[in-house]
Design brief:
This protein is mainly beta and 151 residues long. It has two domains: 80 residues, Aspartate carbamoyltransferase regulatory subunit, N-terminal domain (Alpha-Beta Plaits); 47 residues, Roll (SH3 type barrels), CATH 2.30.30. Helix content is 12%, strand content 38%. The protein has two helices and eleven strands. The strands form three sheets. Strands 2-3-1-4-5 form a five-stranded antiparallel β-sheet, with helices on one face. A hairpin with a 2-residue loop joins strand 4 and strand 5. The chain is globular.
Length: 151
């Protein structure tokens, strides 16, 4: 007799669930959307019929603001975002990768003008690499770093 085994993960009362994150970007999403004050659950390399492997992130008591959604759309545009209230989905966000983002990411090129003068960063986005508008360097999505406000 064949038995199914399931991993049971506790539901969150209030917060956000991000599903269908590309497996290789899950840790990056966690780094960019959480801090040490957040209680969260993350699963990486979970089975997915559509992606092969995926990641999932549940963040207790955090609702993503517009900046968070822009970051997520730049990193994982096919992810699904569900807002949870009292254990129920009350809102869903459909993400779409923008062609360009301003002020969200830090350029990894230390010689880039954005790291040496007070100029907002600007990146042109594509599914696998993002290009700095100023120094024109290409960066794999997995190497992107968030630009923290006031930095």
């Amino acid at each position: 007799m064949k038995t199914k085994r399931h991993l049971v993960v506790e539901a969150i009362r209030n917060g956000t669930v991000i599903d269908h994150i590309p497996a290789d970007r899950t840790l990056l999403v966690i780094e960019m959307l959480t801090n040490d004050k957040h209680c969260y659950f993350a699963g990486v390399n979970l089975a997915s019929t559509s992606q092969g492997q995926k990641g999932i992130l549940k963040i207790q008591d955090k609702i993503l603001v517009e900046r968070d959604l822009q970051i997520l759309a730049a990193l994982a545009p096919d992810a699904t975002v569900n807002v949870i209230e009292d254990f129920s989905i009350v809102q869903k966000h459909k993400l779409e990768m923008p062609k360009e983002v301003v002020g969200l990411f830090k350029c990894n090129n230390e010689k880039c003008i954005t790291n040496n003068e007070k100029i907002e960063t600007r990146f042109l986005l594509s599914p696998k690499v993002h290009r700095c508008h100023y120094c024109e360097r290409l960066f794999p999505v997995q190497r992107m770093k968030i630009r923290r406000p006031n930095s």
